[in-house]
Write the structure tokens for this entry.
Amino acid sequence: MATVTTEQIRALWDDPNPNAVIDRGDHFTPVTKDDLGALASELDTDDEGYPLDDQWELLADQLNGEAADEPASTAGQDLLDEIRDARIERDRIKADADEKFNALIRAAVVSKKASVIAIAEAADMSRARIYQIRDGRR
């Protein structure tokens, strides 16, 4: 890992590009302006939110003390948590939709108001899959 210097941190802080980063190599996440803001929220700052002179080294120590392949800050961890939560919600919604869809197919087959061939065509499935759903297989 390339050690992050206080000069790099100050340069990133002052960079007008909101997407500027400090690249720390292949096994460490880049440091973003948001990361610095999150870290600085725990430090002593002046009235404009700029870290005091003696706080830059604390930022460098924090960034240089991270383990490889770990989020660069709580902002990085928050993002990973959001991704996990979204995946869980997506899977829950998909499972609910699949169950409702399968229940509708089972009800249609049992009602005998439409042929299995017609149900399969409407569902864009094979007849064999319709029978699997009807029987609760897979």
About this structure: The chain has six helices and two strands. The mean pLDDT is 85.
